[in-house]
């Protein structure tokens, strides 16, 4: 949807500018001292996220004649969390609130979203590897590891996962409130889907226990295995993404991470 279409919908006096993001469908709308965040076809459970204080307050929702849905949220005068701040207990507590939300999970299920099973994730990576004709010994070892460990990571615990917990999506407003934004890729999945990148990318290993204590969970053998499995499959996907984009440096970096992960896991099992 072009900016002029949104401007026509908003009416005279509103000035719009793109707010960034992968979809290109988010805007900042301003009129005098008023400032709001506008988006087309945002997450259909935005109202629940807003009611639970997970995202900035939802102001209104409008449906256009085309069928598109426009949402307006309160503009947050805030900032993205820095990488070092991701180890703070408030991050763990907000993620726990999301994962423990029965209302979010019920709404997701009513929308027909089935759990994202580990087998489905692995099959997608295997198929993508084949379609790209990508061959590398580290990738081969990773796929063998993922296949071998698959029976050990099947779990009956499924929650609503954000699926992109990069620090740029964590926003602190000028009052100190914390939000997790950009829910377009959310999935019903094992909570390890979110915990794996968060722990490996931001939390030193010696702090995993204390972080997970704030999250409300012990680092059991089962959780550790699932976190490792999801980290490996996510790294494999990063390799393929970089390869597809012809980013040789990025692919090499993620292959090294992948190789180290599988090697350490093999050594720990000896």
Descriptive account of the structure:
The chain has 270 residues and is an alpha+beta fold. It has two domains: 3-75, Phosphorylase Kinase, domain 1 (2-Layer Sandwich); 80-268, Alpha-Beta Complex (Aminoglycoside 3'-phosphotransferase, Chain: A, domain 2), CATH 3.90.1200. The chain is built from ten helices and ten strands. It has helices at 3-10, 46-51, 89-99, 102-110, 118-131, 137-149, 192-202, 208-215, 221-244, 248-268; strands at 15-18, 26-31, 34-40, 58-63, 69-74, 78-80, 159-161, 170-173, 178-180, 187-189. The strands form three sheets. It has a five-stranded antiparallel beta sheet with strand order 1-2-3-5-4. Strands 6-8-9 form a three-stranded antiparallel beta sheet, covered by helices on one side. β1 and β2 (26-31) form a beta hairpin. α5 packs parallel to α9 (221-244), α6 (137-149) packs antiparallel against α9 and α9 (221-244) runs antiparallel to α10. The longest helix has 24 residues, at 221-244. The mean pLDDT is 89.
Annotate the secondary structure layout:
Blueprint: H1 3-10, E1 15-18, E2 26-31, E3 34-40, H2 46-51, E4 58-63, E5 69-74, E6 78-80, H3 89-99, H4 102-110, H5 118-131, H6 137-149, E7 159-161, E8 170-173, E9 178-180, E10 187-189, H7 192-202, H8 208-215, H9 221-244, H10 248-268
Antiparallel strand pairs: 1-2, 2-3, 3-5, 4-5, 6-8, 7-10, 8-9
């Amino acid at each position: 949807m072009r900016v002029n279409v949104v401007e026509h919908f908003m009416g005279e006096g509103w000035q719009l500018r793109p707010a960034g993001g992968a979809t290109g469908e988010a805007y900042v709308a301003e009129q005098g001292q008023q400032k709001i965040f506008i988006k087309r076809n945002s997450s259909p459970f935005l109202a629940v996220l807003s009611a639970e204080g997970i995202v900035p307050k939802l102001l209104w929702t409008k449906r256009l004649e085309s069928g598109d849905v426009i949402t307006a949220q309160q503009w947050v005068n805030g900032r993205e969390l820095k990488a070092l701040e991701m180890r703070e207990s408030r991050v763990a507590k907000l993620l726990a609130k999301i994962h423990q939300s029965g209302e979010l999970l019920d709404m997701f299920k009513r929308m027909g979203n089935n759990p994202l099973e580990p087998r489905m994730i692995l099959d997608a990576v295997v198929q993508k590897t084949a379609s790209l004709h990508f061959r590398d010994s580290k990738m081969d070892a990773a796929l063998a590891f993922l296949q071998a460990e698959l029976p050990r990571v099947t779990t009956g615990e499924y929650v609503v996962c954000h699926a992109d917990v990069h620090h740029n999506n964590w926003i602190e407003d000028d009052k100190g409130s914390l939000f997790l934004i950009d829910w377009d890729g959310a999935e019903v999945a094992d909570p390890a889907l979110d915990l794996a990148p968060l722990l490996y990318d931001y939390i030193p290993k010696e702090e995993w226990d204390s972080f997970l204590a704030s999250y409300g969970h012990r680092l059991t053998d089962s959780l550790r295995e699932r976190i490792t499995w999801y980290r490996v499959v996510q790294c494999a996907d990063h390799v393929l993404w970089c390869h597809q984009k012809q980013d040789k440096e990025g692919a090499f970096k993620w292959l090294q991470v992948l190789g180290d992960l599988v090697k350490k896991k093999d050594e720990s099992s000896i």
